[in-house]
Design goal:
47% helix; 7 strands; alpha/beta; 253 residues; globular; single chain
């Protein structure tokens, strides 16, 4: 098992990529602290993980300082430390600078950037505790590297996550904490399904598929496995890396 006896915190862990990552980490021997911003399907969690004491899911607003601090204290009481943090939670919207409202822009930055900052800030002390270090994986995006028309707020937030990753990699190397980011291409998660439902015509969907050389979106497990690579010792020499797993999106066609 690649994560035997490790303790992993995963945000946005009740659906999509976060849930797939939690399942994979659990299969690889990790204890899981799953964070989600609203009520999650407890039956789904129980059916997946059984009654394992190694799995703890909590409803937490990652933009709320009080809730994040409380979570950190709960984790310390239950598990005493954290070895892995996956900052996966994010929201999306559509629009250029004129079409994006002030409230929309602020909400995207609040969840995608400030929420990532806040969780990391209060989990890091639990990673430093036993001086063995750990691994942080931030979920960025291929369009955080390349940009995309009519996605101003989201691309801005993911671009910020990329440099957040690089700065943290420099700051925490002496603590043996590696900090890397994964930059997925389009991934068929609940968020993407909802985005297509609200904003996209069939023609637009086809255009999105064509942006990827492979000509399709990824399944969540295809991104979860590279996250596992960055979480475990297989990637022991990776630090400050931005790992593109995007079906060729950043190559261009």
């Amino acid at each position: 098992m690649k994560l035997k006896d490790k303790v992993a915190v995963i945000t946005g862990a009740a659906t999509g990529l976060g849930f797939e990552t939690a399942k994979l980490f659990f299969e690889e021997g990790a204890s899981i602290i799953g964070i989600y911003h609203k009520r999650f399907d407890e039956k789904k969690i129980r059916n997946t993980f059984g009654d394992s004491k190694k799995v703890f899911y909590s409803k937490v607003d990652i933009t709320n300082l009080t809730e994040v601090k409380k979570l950190s204290s709960e984790i310390e009481k239950r598990f005493s430390r954290v070895d892995i943090l996956v900052n996966n939670a994010a929201i999306d919207t559509i629009g250029n600078v004129e079409k994006t409202s002030e409230d929309e822009f602020q909400k995207i930055m609040n969840v995608n950037v400030y929420g990532t900052f806040l969780v990391t800030k209060y989990i890091i002390p639990l990673m430093k505790k036993d001086k063995k270090g750990g691994s942080i994986i931030n979920v960025a995006s291929s369009i955080g590297l390349m940009g995309m028309a009519d996605r101003l707020a989201y691309t801005t937030s993911k671009g910020a996550i990329i440099n957040f990753t690089r700065s943290m990699a420099l700051d925490y190397v002496d603590y043996h904490i590696r900090v890397n980011a994964i930059a997925p291409g389009g991934t068929y998660t609940e968020m993407v399904k909802e985005f297509f439902k609200k904003h996209a015509s069939e023609e637009f969907k086809k255009e999105v598929y064509k942006m990827h050389v492979i000509n399709r979106l990824a399944e969540p497990i295809e991104i979860a496995k590279p996250i596992l690579f960055l979480a475990c010792d297989d990637s022991s020499y990776a630090n400050g890396a931005i790992f593109s797993v995007d079906g060729g999106y950043t190559c261009g066609k």
